[in-house]
Design a protein that fits this description.
The protein has one domain: Mog1/PsbP, alpha/beta/alpha sandwich (Protein Transport Mog1p, Chain A). It is globular, with a radius of gyration of 21 Å. The chain has a seven-stranded antiparallel β-sheet. The chain has a three-stranded antiparallel β-sheet with strand order 1-2-10. 19% of the residues are buried. By secondary structure, the protein is of the alpha+beta class. About 8% of the residues have low confidence. The chain contains five helices and ten strands, in the order H-E-H-E-E-E-E-H-H-E-E-E-E-H-E.
């Protein structure tokens, strides 16, 4: 019996040593599109493409709820847990002005028309094409939202669906996470 314990302990130690080697700081996720929210033209795509991205290891994947394709929690050093959501809707899903103003209202900011919204937007590009990132802050309430609107264009160059990525929390914590958010958005791509 003592021999079996020694062998078992030896195997556990070896597994522990080799299983705890440092690994990359990135996890890659492949999730099939949720076709229940897509227009009919997109469900006819060959091979039903999957939306893929790379999330930092510190981001904790959680079960998506409501319309979310994916959700993450990001624990911060001050104990705050930041929520990240990925949602896909058909078409432009109301457009930039309507969606940004909805987010502004969520952190108690007044609505704006499209001109100042676009003036304060950061235009980015990725494998999915050009998109916008919005940094919204309410300094009075210490609330912030970082959000990306990524339109997916079909062959006729019309928006067939829109990907929304949103992170919300306190201003200071979200300022620290801006770069991670930008990299996360840039990693989005379709895989056939």
């Amino acid at each position: 019996m003592k021999l079996y314990r020694s062998i078992f302990l030896y195997i556990v130690l070896i597994l522990f040593q080799f299983g705890c080697q440092p690994e990359s700081n990135i996890k890659v996720y492949k999730i099939k599109k949720n076709t229940s929210f897509l227009s009919q033209t997109n469900t006819d795509k060959p091979n039903n493409p999957q939306l893929n991205w790379a999330a930092p290891n510190a981001w904790i994947e959680k079960k998506p709820k409501d319309f979310r394709l994916a959700s993450y929690d990001i624990p911060s050093s001050n104990g705050e847990v930041i929520d990240v959501s990925i949602i896909i809707f058909p078409g432009d899903a109301g457009g930039i002005e309507q969606n940004v103003n909805r987010w502004r209202r969520q952190i108690n900011l007044e609505s704006q028309n499209i001109e100042p919204i676009l003036k304060n937007a950061y235009k980015q590009s990725s494998m999915l094409g050009e998109y916008f990132i919005f940094y919204l802050e309410n300094k009075t309430t210490n609330q912030s939202i970082i959000a990306a609107i990524i339109p997916y264009l079909d062959d006729e160059q019309t928006i067939s669906e829109t990907i929304f990525i949103k992170m919300n929390g306190s201003i200071h914590v979200l300022q620290e996470l801006k770069y991670e958010f930008e990299l996360f958005c840039k990693s989005m791509h379709w895989l056939q």
